[in-house]
## 1
Amino acid sequence: MSNINLIDSFQEFKEFKNIDRPTVISVLEEVFRSMIRKKYGTDENCDVIVNPDNGDLEIWRTRTVMEDGFSEDDDLEIELAEVHKIDPELEVGDDFIEQVTLETFGRRAILAARQTLVSKVLELEKDEIFRKYKDRVGEIVTGEVYQVWKKETLVLDDEGNELLLPKTEQIPADYYKKGDTVRAVILKVDMLNTNPKIIISRTAPEFLQRLFELEVPEIFDGLIVIKKIVREPGERAKVAVESYDDRIDPVGACVGMKGSRIHGIVRELKNENIDVINFTQNSSLYIQRALSPAKITTIKLDDVDKRAAVYLKPDQVSLAIGRGGHNIKLAGKLTGYEIDVYREAEVDDEDVDLEEFSDEIDGWIIDEFKRVGLDTAKSVLELTIDELVKRTDLEDGTVKEVLSILRAEFE
């Protein structure tokens, strides 16, 4: 029989990389049964046989032989006189089985069936891609940049599946053009209007964790465990690690000989500064390690409100806070404590504690300066407006007003 392009279609369908053959066969059978129902009203008395190797199709229709004039449903029954034209040996009550050719349905119905087949198989393909990537969330994937837009970049994996890398999930220093290779972690997978939407990320902590697993065999093998990762993508990251083997130094293993292991990760993250520290249950020691490279003189903990008052020498305050306040922010996220930095004041009879200005400056503003280690008038006046705005969450105008009040004190 002439299958009018359906066999060719089947050859295309069974090449689909993510769909198994039995599934495609069941789809084909369902499409043909739908055609039978449209033509005959029912498919209960029809058998559809699809050859799994080449897609050849056979449709067999069974009707009961009835006495002439007693047939009530031509779709299920056939009169004796009509049957005898084909097979004279059949009697009333016998089953009349005939093969139905595709031409019986007409060219239009067959072309419609082909279209239905294409859409159903594509739908299956999309479902399979969704399931496949849903199970891979958190894994690293490598792809090639196909198109770059303002808010996102389209990346194709090695099977041609589309991955989206939004601008918000890119490291600020990332710059891509068509054909570039990208490594990222699968962040989430959604189904949007029957299309799988696969979002990948280079800013997620999981990406840094997977890079460590690739570079440090001890982490991959489970001898060293990453307890927590916090990041300011492209700027700084802090990684707390712990060893389950007393003979292994977790920090040394992660950094490698002369930094050999961590250098590759730093390059991948566009020179992100990575601090690897030993995890400990001792909160005081943990905070001290988290604020590295600053040297802490004294620390006072409030475990109820999860606050830590940290006292440092004046030359260590800027190290503790870090450029743009990244070091102290990340240390707080890593340890779970709100960290307040205080400088151990060197004796200066002329300097004035900020609390002395509480009648002119709101208390919450004073608290904000103290939070970043600026607790005297001169410590504030030593910094520029831009530096003060960066370190605190204060507006430009507020900072200028405070500086004006403080300068007046010394004039």
Note: The chain has a mean pLDDT of 85.
## 2
Amino acid sequence: MTVVSARAGRSGALGVLLLGSTLTVMAGAVLAPVIELMRTERGFSATAAGLVVTVHGVSLALAGPAVGWLVDRWGTRRPLAAGLLLYGLAGGAGLVVESYPLLIATRLAFGIGAAFVFTGTTVELLDRYGGPLRDKVMGWRSAAISLGGVVWPLVGGALGAISWHAPFAVYLLGVPLAALTWRMADRPRPEPAVRAGRGPLALFAGRPGLLAVYALQGIATALLYAVLVFLPVRLGELGVTSTVAVAVFTASLSVAMSGVGLGYTRLRSRVDHSGLLLAAFALWTVALLAIGLAGAVALPLVAVGLFGAGMGVAVPALTVLTGDLAPTSHRGQATALLATAGFGGQFLSPLLFGPLSSATSTRATFVVAAALAGATGLTLLGYRWRRERVAYL
């Protein structure tokens, strides 16, 4: 009876953590369908309405290192529960807030809550599972995140039929998840004196591989948002203007990512992390070139699926690598910096590719993005070759 109860508790905690993992992708996606409603009903400019959806990324990225330190200092349960509560209350405030400055303030507070959610759920999963089981759980996490990228915008769109305020109600999910998290058992952590450590100096000492992981995370996220931002424009050039049709392309990316994520354990049993990341960048190179050079709609549809397959490999690989490379006492800080790198890539992507698109063309933008993916892949290949040569010698 006790064994059954323990197993139920573990599976229940896993369900909470996987659902919590979808909340960061929900953070902006759930509001995307009501951007136009904000503009028409409240008179917001396109930029002002867009900031409501994206400004949380700034506070998330800036708060990340402090959040990581708190997780290392206190463990995951209490910071994660507090973050989920802040996520739910600050996010749900949009149900009643009318003032634009106050709405932006709540979104910034919401971003801090989202930083706790990302770091807390990821570290707890890394702490709970090791070896092949960790690979399996991280594959499930990747699948959950990608499915959230499909489901939450649909929920937001359905609620948006009521009013532009209504989708903010979805964020209240953080409140019951906070209560469930608070009831989870604490995981053993290093002693406080060890957990405090020496900040990033202790984290990176003798671990240059972590910097490489963060660089890859930033590049991967920048490429992803290049697709999300410029694919609709490229499809318009190919004669696809229906929002439903564009949504099908975006959904195919998430579906492919989810499918590969569910099979990640099998892939990982055959290929090491560097090989999987090399495959991801190769897929992205081919996909981005296909989107940029395509003369018909069918090829970009296949290409977007290939891009999603690469994401399905890269997301769990980079997360597991972070957990493996970081000392347990600094795993919170390492994971928080992974989030900072990802949201940094998200922020920089339109700044990098937007002016390029304006100065040249959308076609050229995808070709340059493919070149970036290919150059990164070749760098990974060179690193892999040197490592194997040293091992051979």
Note: DSSP finds 18 helices and no strands in the chain.
